[in-house]
Amino acid sequence: MRPIWKGAISFGLVNIPVGLYSGTKSKQKVEFDMLREKDLSRIRYKRVAEADEKEVPYDQIVKGYEYEKGNYVVVTKQDFERVGLKSTQIVDIKEFVDLADIDPRFYDEPYYLAPEKGGAKAYVLLHEALAETGKAGVANVVLRPPREKLALVKPVNGILMLETMHFADELRHTSEIEVPKAEVGRKELDMAISLVKTMEGKWDAEKYHDEYRTALMDLIEEKVKAGGKPVTGGKAKAPSATRIVDLASVLEESLKEAQGSGVKKKPRKPSVKSRGRKAA
User: Fold this and answer.
1) pTM greater than the 0.70 cutoff
2) pLDDT band for position 235 (50/70/90)?
3) Domains in the chain and their CATH numbers?
4) Which residues pair with 141 in a beta bridge?
């Protein structure tokens, strides 16, 4: 695996040379092109001005900020350069905080940090210090100029992970969602707790897969083999929403079902690989 960039972790007077690696693989999406039905030719989109519906050449397009309805100020390349942040490739840790205190909602995208030549001992030292203290380093990083990201350096499975994070003003507050209040009885609560305990298991990420993507790729393979002709097959039936009249009876039935099922079925593992365009 090739690093995205090589730089350093910095805290106090310590500098640790590191390489930054992506922590995820993008395979979730199945890409589609928009085509004309009669001949399957690709559909292209044009840049058209609202004022006269004329196509606008790319070199005549500028970026504008709408500061009030219908009024724009143009921001030029030189303007962006004035406020732009260069990718210094330095993970500059500002402070160390308790990892347990961080709300998971702030996490955005994971990356891995690996030591470069001459940095192994300091790298391991930082990893062990964070692991023993339960701390994580808070830093600002510029991975893709000009955007600055909040980031967290934490120990995971023997290495250091850099997790980019959302700033506080990027998260919606829970008060924006109106949730009605309701009274629950002790009987219902006890049964709900019993149901949760009956269905509990040990977290294993390998057990879970994108079943929709697998089914979609299976269907695409069938259509390719059939020369693009329609294929028949059973449609998955989604559970229907029902109006709960007696919550206690529903919980009781769920509890009986969970207790009687014994070992839970494992989700089907995907066996289909994407063809054609790479998933993004």
Assistant:
1) no
2) low
3) 5-27+84-168 (2.40.290.10), 184-199+207-231+246-280 (no CATH)
4) 149
Partners of 19 in the β-ladder:
6, 114
DSSP symbols for the chain: ---SEEEEEEETTEEEEEEEEE------------B-TTT-PBP----B-TTT--B--GGG--EEEEEETTEEEEE-HHHHHHH------EEEEEEEEEGGGS-GGGEEEEEEEEE-TT-HHHHHHHHHHHHHHTEEEEEEEEEETTEEEEEEEEEETTEEEEEEE--GGGSPPGGGS--------HHHHHHHHHHHHHT-----GGG---HHHHHHHHHHHHHHHTTT-----PPPPPPPP---S-HHHHHHHHHHHHHHH-SPPPPPPP-----SSPP-
The string of pLDDT tens digits covering residues 78-115 is 888 777 665 568 898 999 999 999 999 999 999 999 99
Tell me how far the alpha carbon of residue 11 is from its chain's centroid.
28
Contact 103, 13 (CB under 8 A): no
